[in-house]
Automatic annotation (TrEMBL), chain A:
Keyword annotations of the record: Cell membrane, Cobalamin biosynthesis, Cobalt, Cobalt transport, Ion transport, Membrane, Signal, Transmembrane, Transmembrane helix, Transport
Designated name of the protein: Cobalt transport protein CbiM
Function: Part of the energy-coupling factor (ECF) transporter complex CbiMNOQ involved in cobalt import.
Domain of life: Bacteria
Recorded family membership: Belongs to the CbiM family.
GO cellular component: a single term: ATP-binding cassette (ABC) transporter complex
Transmembrane regions listed in the UniProt entry: 12-35, 41-60, 109-132, 139-160, 172-195, 207-235
Pathway connected to this protein: Cofactor biosynthesis; adenosylcobalamin biosynthesis
GO molecular function annotations of the record: cobalt ion transmembrane transporter activity
Membrane topology of the entry: Multi-pass membrane protein
InterPro entries linked: CbiM, CbiM/NikMN
Subcellular location: Cell inner membrane; Cell membrane
Automatic annotation (TrEMBL), chain B:
Membrane topology, record value: Multi-pass membrane protein
Species this chain originates from: Acetobacterium wieringae
Phylogenetic lineage: Bacteria, Bacillati, Bacillota, Clostridia, Eubacteriales
Name listed for the protein in its UniProt record: Cobalt transport protein CbiQ
Gene designation per UniProt: cbiQ_2
One annotated Gene Ontology cellular component of this protein: ATP-binding cassette (ABC) transporter complex
Biological process according to GO: cobalt ion transport
Amino acid sequence: MNTRLNIREKRFVAVVAAIALVFGFTPVASAMHIMEGYLPVGFSIAWGGICIPFLIAGYLSIKKTLKENPKTITLLAMAGAYVFVLSSLKIPSVTGSCSHMTGTGLGAILFGPAAVSILGIIVLLFQAILLAHGGLTTLGANTFSMAIAGPFVTYGIFILCKKIKINRHVGVFLAAAIGDLFTYCVTAFQLALAYPSESGGVAASMVKFLAVFAPTQLPLAIIEGILTVVIIIGLETYAQPELNDLGYLTGGVK
Amino acid sequence: MENSSAKRLDFVRTNEKSDNSHHHYKHHHQIGHKHGEGSAIDYYAYASKIRGWNPSFKVAFSVLTLLLCIVLNNPLVSLAVIVSMAYLTVVKGGLPLGAYLSVLMIPLTFIILGTVAIGIDFSRQPIGQFNLYLGFGYLYTSIAKLKEMVFLMMKVFGAISAMIMMTLSTPSSEIIGVLRKAHVPKLIIELMNLIYRYIFILLDVFNNMRNSADSRQGYCDFKTSCQTFGNVASNMLVLSLKKANAYYTAMEARGYEGDLVFLEDEKPFQISQVIYAVGFMLFLLLLWYVTK
């Protein structure tokens, strides 16, 4: 094949680049839920299965908290509603696009990762029912990436930063942003596993999915990090007693 | 500056609790993703003409259709599902076509990005029917891949239309009722019931806060918007925690002892509907078998 482009081909490349740019700058980026019907049945079941141990752990932990203190039921429900509302809000963005937070990162920092796994699957179900984001058959995969993997990484980094005494707000930013990025990588991996590239296998396919979603997800992770810090600063200023209250909910942050 | 579309009512509170508030707001029916479509789905579910059908039947029918659409993985089956679900929702359910399309288009960006990533591939050699040299390798695709892409899109749309047939005709409280009958643990059901109710309360809180922040130039530029967003979100958490305590007291005052019981409408099965549904499933299977 001729390696030099003729004018028509060059024009075609320019048009494609322009389209790519337009898509890159006006993303309707929800937090990358895998859509209904996108995963083959085997994968839907497998991801659901992987979630089960985490969900059982979360269920037992919630049950224990409730037994000790029945009052937490309304608190937990409010926490779930809060994560849902947070994830459905349009966040400020420079380009006028419409994007949303994951919200589960903040949830993990405030309420602890175990509770977030159960609240997360409920929130994801409501997102499918009320917002048409995500779906029923992809619930398992989405729960794993958004309600389990992301929050656990967020929580881990948050605790790690606390241990090595990095500035608290920097820690929160890193935790939320990296948790978000991790969710995005896990989702790309889930997609790549279901649709491997025929010439390069899963790895090549993963690179493709990462590349395609990068323009929407990278800025989103940074904005999510910043917003989480702003929210935490607000809470520290106005809600110290409530933050202390949350401690008993989960053994989370005091 | 947050554009005016944000002020267009994002969250119409539309369940029974707020009958008097929703007709102040105008719905714009247009194709494309709109922010806050969410509660609009809830509103459509309550307004649907097939709301009276038995919810267990609707959930089972929608989930089975969804599964068939994915398992059979056949473009004709997908097409049949898309057409019949649109018929059920728009003609039987009485939802305006524009509204239906706008809900169907919510996942459009994901579908476009996701299928493009599948249809187009990189390689060091020029293979496939169409390829483009990029300096370091070839971007290529082939008729077979494009076909796979289109079929996948159809499958996804079929699956989505099966799911939104259910969500656009069955209010969430009824879906939770079905889950309860399917023996989902009681704790989860209680949490779901409470979360569903609290979502609308928090949205109300959020709308008030956003309006008052907006009237004080809280969204005048990007930096201020971020700050306002953070303040509103943290304040919302404080308020929601206070409300949670108040609601627990209110529940206790009404005799709550660890069991939440909700009243549910009795909606009997109609045998004819079940027969139609089984017929439809058989038709899908037949269609798959013939065109396999």
